[in-house]
C-alpha cells in the first residue's frame, strides 16, 4: 500500500481516527509552484490544509487536493479527485469527486446483504 503525503510548504494534513486508505493515494497541500497575478506580482495560489474526518475510507488511486475537507464516515470512490468539501456520511466519486449518495457509513466487516 502506498499513501503519498506531500507538503512543499508549511501546511497541515490532518487525518482523523479509524480511517482506511487503499493503495496509491496522493495528498498534496500545495501546488508546488507559484502562480502570480500579472498586475501586482503577488502570489495567488497559497497552500491550504487538508482535513480528513474520523472513519473515512479513501479508495485506490484517489487524489486529495489542497484545501479539501472530507467529512467523517464518508467513502471516496476509487480514482476520485477530491477538491473542496465532501460532507459527512456520504459517498463521493469522480473527477472532481461529487456526492453520489448520502446517509451512509461503512464497516470493515463483510456483513450479509
From TrEMBL:
| Molecular function per GO | acyltransferase activity
- SUPFAM superfamilies per record: Trimeric LpxA-like enzymes (SSF51161)
Pfam families, alphabetized = Hexapep (PF00132)
Q: Transmembrane ranges?
A: none
The record's section on InterPro entries has: Hexapep (IPR001451), Hexapeptide_acetyltransf (IPR051159), Trimer_LpxA-like_sf (IPR011004)
- Superkingdom in the source lineage: Bacteria
The UniProt keyword set, sorted, is: Acyltransferase, Transferase
Membrane recorded as keyword: no
For this entry, the protein name equals Acyltransferase
Q: Can you name the source organism? A: Paracoccus benzoatiresistens
